Amino acid sequence: MALSTILVKPEQLDEAALRNAARDVLSATLTRFTSLPADAQLTQLLEFVESLKEMPLALPSQPEFDAYELPTEFFEIILGKRLKFGALYFKNFEPIALDEAEDAMLELYFERARIQDGQTILDIGAGWGAASFYIAERCPRSHITAVCSKLQKDYIDNKCRELGISNVRAIESDICTLELNETFDRSLVSHKDLVQYLKNYKLLFEKISSWMTPDGLLFIEALTHKSFARHYQETQGDEMTAWIGKYFLNGGTLLADSLLLNFQDDLSIVGHWRIDGRHHGLSSDAYARQMSENADLIRPIFNDVYGKEQANVWMGRWKAVFILFAEMYKFDNGQQWLLSHYLFKKN
After folding, report:
1. Which residue from 298, 311, 196 is spatially nearest to 249, judged by alpha carbons?
2. Domains of the chain by start residue, with CATH
3. Helices (DSSP H) in 150-248: which residue ranges?
4. Are residues 123 and 312 in contact, defined by beta-carbon separation less than 8 angstroms?
5. Pairing relation of β-strands 143-148 and 120-124?
6. Residue 220 in 3-state DSSP?
7. CB 3.0-4.6 Å disulfide test: which of 12, 96, 104, 183 passes with 89?
């Protein structure tokens, strides 16, 4: 059955059929791309890079609902205790608790960003403060500024009060409107989708570099493909990309692993890592499983947000997007769609 047919009625989701259809689409996508000669693949990527340089930092997106403005209670149900939304790290790909997988990935951030106690840290797109609070615990003399949405700021502020944390402050803003008059030793862009929502990475690096101390470093996490890049709102024969773009990543970008290396006017790369996509696949599978196991807790939340008539539809869509990402990042044993880490210094 075609993927688009299965997704017409997400409230009647057939998980096995969805996974099989997703694998078919992914296989066709790779066949279409790899059928191009190597030089044509590179030309296509470089043309994509140049087109991004002519675009704004981000496009005005019109998703039907802002996924991250769902009540925090929903994310408390499906995520681990730190509310880290995105790729977690499963050592040896073994099934472990979400809490443990969250901490394992945050440990990688800490190590690769070269964070030390006493530094000033800027956490852009901080979400519910997973990285900010992790750093605050390990570096009590550091001062962390977390940039996030209003709902997320409220959560972070409340948690700081409850736990007596004084070295984390939250700022309500997004990267497009953020203005700061201070500099930081370390900057993090590690939220699951932040980099994917952007277009002109030259403008991004120009902006962030102005907030970095002379010896400052920028750490970025991005979901990528090892070779190609594309816009999520483009179909190009890929119904999976079109559906994800319509409901969850409107105006978004799928980065190639090497894409950010083409934007080094203000920053230069000093560290670059590829992480097996299966880590994100296992994370997404876990979120889909949490959706199923906690449907009775989630449904009242979705009734309030989407209305009773659409609640089951959106429960199906959320579970479907987790399954689609799981299949995407587990495809070819995690060697196609990846998680990429980058460390940049100021020029």
Report:
1. 196
2. 13-346 (3.40.50.150)
3. 150-163, 201-209, 239-247
4. no
5. parallel
6. strand
7. 104
